[in-house]
Amino acid sequence: RHPGRQHRLHAPVVSIGNIAVGGRAKSPMAELVARALMAAGERPSILSRGYARERRIETPVVVRGADAVRAGVAESGDEPLMLAEALDGAIVVVGADRARAGAVAEQLGATVHILDDGFQHLRLRRDIDIVMLHPRDLDDRVMPAGRLREPLDALSAADAIVLVDGARNDRSSSALRLANVSDAQVFTAVRRVEAPPVALAGVPAFLASGIADSGQLAQSLAAAGWMIAGERSFKDHHAYRGADVDDILRAAASAGAAFVLTTAKDAVRLRPVWRGTTPLHVAAMTLEIDGTFHEWLVERVGRAREARRREALRAGRDGARAS
Known about the structure:
Elements: E1 13-18, H1 26-39, E2 44-48, E3 61-64, H2 73-76, H3 78-86, E4 91-94, H4 98-107, E5 112-116, E6 128-133, E7 160-164, H5 168-178, E8 185-193, E9 204-209, H6 214-224, E10 227-233, H7 242-254, E11 259-262, H8 264-270, E12 280-282, E13 285-289, H9 293-322
Parallel strand pairs: 1-5, 1-6, 2-4, 2-5, 6-7, 7-8, 9-10, 9-11, 11-12
Antiparallel strand pairs: 3-4, 8-13
Helix pairs in contact: 3-8
């Protein structure tokens, strides 16, 4: 992946990506990694391209400084704003040029970077590559015949592979199969939907969402105890308008729902245009990962920082000899 041609930031870079189109829990993973690094004393930044932003700005946009959220959904995109609202103390910067975004984050005090959807972003040098994988990806084909962005042998460049969702047996057998294509450390993770609070348990809800796998979402919500009376699905990253809200509210009333339920990603787009008296609630979701992942991550970031320090010393000695 041509490391000599890549831009290099001062702080270590942890990339989170995938090799298939569609949702693979990259944003929940970015949040999990950020929390783990903050718990270890780091000030992480999340660098995102801001997919599906309505307002394109050439320079990097600081969605969150370490102190507060600084941008709205039009400038940031839904997932960066969702992460900015969730991660007090982290830094979130959006920009097509992730190297420039990282430089801005370092000026704000970032000590480590999380490159969101970064496995195919080859312009920026990464220290750690984490790839999110669903077990079914191992039997898929490269586009246009399938949904893979690149062939499975690209996984040889990964430092860690996280098998997310799927049945427990599928994750276990997939971990064994991965040994044939990659030497990466393999972890398993599961997305969990939190149960409704007591006040909403047994109360009919209308689900409105615009995510990659809305069908699976409805099943997961029902399994967690939410009573779904009806649902309306929109395309991923849908930019909600007032007419959409009116449509949702009419459908919710017809279904006999007492409130509208949505995801955290959808909520950052829905809240600015929400109207009426029907409450809008967010279903909380978490990503649970192997217990050893946090220790592995912190150790690898420490190794990356030490390797960078040694490279800087060598470069300094080489420069002194040349002069």
